[in-house]
């Protein structure tokens, strides 16, 4: 062998050793990291999740004037004879610039929370069929809205259903919606990630501000696939089971249910008492039954693979490690110890939509028991608040939203340097009246939210104050309209100013109340 050949052979052997060593090093790192993840999932699952916290209600972005309007404001006008005097407390709010929408679901808290060790996971069920269709109009909604409160410290689990028909706001958006439509406001099936994120934020407000950072969303097919993959469920039916065509597919009593029948059971309402409250109870019972089977048959370790196999029918923002940690933690949970709650109330048909008017005190008791917090009532979901919207609130919101669009168009087309003096004066005058109405509306809105107890009659003083506030809003609206029309004319703006638009269609397509249309047929 030539010396050079021997040298090449030694170099090749050295290179192979280096490559082998590098590969083994990478494998060792992967195994080390994988082992650490597995160890963490098994022994310290809570460290894989962000700490639970209390968040304040989200306020939409504020409008800002295009220039300093103070120099262009005329001296304060003297009230005309017979003109409504505005109660000073309505214009004393510290809001410098108006919010796009009222913070109707502001959920501030009092007291010391007991959130250590708790992780909230939202579970959403979408009424979307495999072919892309839906059972409720043209848009799939989240007809199952459940918070799973997992306490890693005490090994307690609580299931909290939120009625799909409660009246709510959608964080960051103008208008009012049913809870199951918040998903559509966020993006719906066109952008499910954003839709579930917004639904989770709305759920946080209903849970007193307690964060809900994680979610799982399942459509019809995902439910069917999950149940069939674990061999069905043995379940004691409390009612005869019917499909959507009202055909009986199983009788009351102990039955073995496949995926199709479990889905039918979860969705039954009209043929099972007609109340969504009863349906949410059955949904929580089925959740526990599925968990019990997985645990009894030692199949909890299958959960990550089961969820992964659902593919496009499952939506989640959790990692595989987090799901594995939750599945492993579930081994320590006794199915009989799982607590079941519902935020619900009687159905009331008001103003073209049917809503669930929740039991306010029951909600506060649930949040105190599960999270240890003293939350405030959700004043938006009351008949008294609905009456306020129809008597005065919707009209004020309509005027504010129309005027806000005028400012947006003017700001997008003009700058301070391109505006004439006449335009600046018209702009400033309109801005002043706009902010006056917004400030007064916010004050009245917050006051109305304190009158959340529909069972408690208003005092004579409260009735008189309410009437005074309604008249004040109307007076401010009457001042804003001509100022907005004058500004529109001065700038030649194209924004539609239909001041007499029918507020009975406040939820319809093209409404100036709701900034997103949701089909609830």
Q: Please, what is the CATH homologous superfamily of the largest domain? A: LCP protein
CATH class of the largest domain: Alpha Beta
CATH architecture assignment name of the largest domain:
3-Layer(aba) Sandwich
Report the total helices. Answer: 12
Number of strands: 16
Element order: H for helix, E for strand: HEEEEEEHHEHEEEEHHHEHEEEHEHHH
CATH topology name of the largest domain: Aminopeptidase
Average pLDDT value? Answer: 83
Ends: how far apart? Answer: 88 Å
Q: Uncertain segments of ≥5 residues (pLDDT<50)?
A: 19-42, 95-111
Strand content: 5-15%
Radius of gyration: 29 Å
Biggest pleated sheet: 6 strands, mixed
Share of residues in helices? 40-55%
Structural class by secondary-structure content = alpha+beta
Q: Any overview of this molecule?
A:
The protein has about 525 residues and is of the alpha+beta class. It folds into 3 domains: about 5-45; about 70-95 and about 385-505, no CATH class; about 110-380, 3-Layer(aba) Sandwich (Aminopeptidase), CATH 3.40.630.190. About 45% of the residues lie in helices and about 15% in strands. The chain is built from 12 helices and 16 strands. A 6-stranded mixed β-sheet has the order 12-7-2-3-4-13, with helices on both faces. Helix 4 crosses helix 5 (about 260-265), helix 5 (about 260-265) packs antiparallel against helix 6 and helix 10 (about 385-415) runs parallel beside helix 12 (about 460-490). Mean pLDDT is about 85; it is low at about 20-40 and about 95-110.
């Amino acid at each position: 062998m030539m010396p050079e050949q021997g040298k090449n052979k030694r170099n090749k052997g050295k290179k192979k050793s280096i490559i082998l060593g590098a590969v083994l090093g990478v494998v060792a790192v992967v195994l080390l990291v994988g082992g650490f993840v597995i160890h963490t999932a098994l022994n310290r699952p809570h460290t894989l999740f962000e700490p639970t916290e209390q968040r304040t209600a989200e306020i939409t972005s504020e409008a800002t004037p295009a220039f300093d309007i103070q120099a262009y404001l005329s001296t304060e006008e003297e009230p005309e004879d017979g003109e409504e005097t505005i109660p000073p407390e309505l214009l004393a709010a510290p809001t410098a610039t108006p919010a796009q929408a009222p913070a109707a679901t502001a959920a501030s808290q009092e007291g010391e929370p007991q959130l250590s060790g708790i992780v909230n996971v939202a579970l959403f069920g979408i009424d979307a069929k495999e072919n892309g269709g839906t059972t409720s109009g043209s848009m799939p909604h989240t007809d199952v809205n459940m918070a799973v409160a997992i306490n890693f410290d005490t090994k307690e689990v609580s299931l909290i259903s939120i009625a799909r028909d409660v009246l709510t706001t959608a964080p960051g958006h103008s208008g009012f919606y049913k809870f199951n439509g918040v998903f559509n406001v966020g993006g719906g099936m066109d952008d499910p990630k954003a839709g579930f994120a917004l639904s989770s934020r709305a759920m946080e407000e209903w849970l007193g501000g307690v964060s809900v950072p994680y979610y799982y969303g399942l459509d019809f097919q995902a439910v069917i696939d999950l149940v069939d993959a674990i061999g069905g469920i043995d379940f004691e039916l409390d009612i005869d089971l019917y499909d959507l065509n009202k055909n009986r597919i199983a009788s009351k009593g102990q039955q073995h249910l496949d995926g199709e029948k479990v889905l039918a059971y979860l969705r039954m309402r009209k043929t099972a008492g007609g109340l969504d409250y009863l349906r949410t109870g059955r949904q929580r019972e089925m959740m526990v039954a599925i968990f019990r089977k997985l645990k009894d048959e030692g199949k909890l370790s299958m959960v990550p693979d089961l969820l992964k196999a659902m593919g496009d029918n499952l939506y989640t923002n959790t990692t595989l490690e987090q799901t594995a940690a939750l599945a492993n933690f579930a081994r320590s949970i006794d199915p009989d110890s799982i607590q079941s709650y519902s935020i619900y109330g009687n159905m009331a048909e008001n103003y073209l939509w049917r809503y669930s008017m929740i039991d306010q005190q029951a909600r506060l008791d649930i949040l105190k028991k599960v999270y240890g917090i003293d939350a405030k009532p959700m004043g938006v979901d009351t008949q008294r608040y609905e009456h306020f919207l129809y008597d005065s609130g919707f009209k004020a919101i309509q005027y504010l939203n129309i005027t806000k669009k005028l400012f947006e168009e003017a700001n997008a087309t003009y700058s301070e340097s391109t505006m004439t003096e006449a335009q600046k004066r018209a702009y400033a005058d309109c801005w002043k009246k706009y902010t006056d109405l917004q400030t007064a509306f916010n004050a009245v809105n917050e006051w109305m939210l304190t009158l959340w107890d529909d069972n408690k009659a208003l005092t004579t003083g409260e009735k008189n104050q309410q009437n005074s506030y309604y008249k004040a809003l109307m007076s401010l609206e009457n001042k804003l309209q001509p100022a907005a029309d004058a500004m529109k004319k001065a700038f030649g703006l194209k924004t539609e100013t239909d001041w007499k638009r029918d507020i009975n269609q406040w939820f319809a397509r093209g409404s100036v109340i709701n900034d997103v249309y949701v089909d609830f047929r």
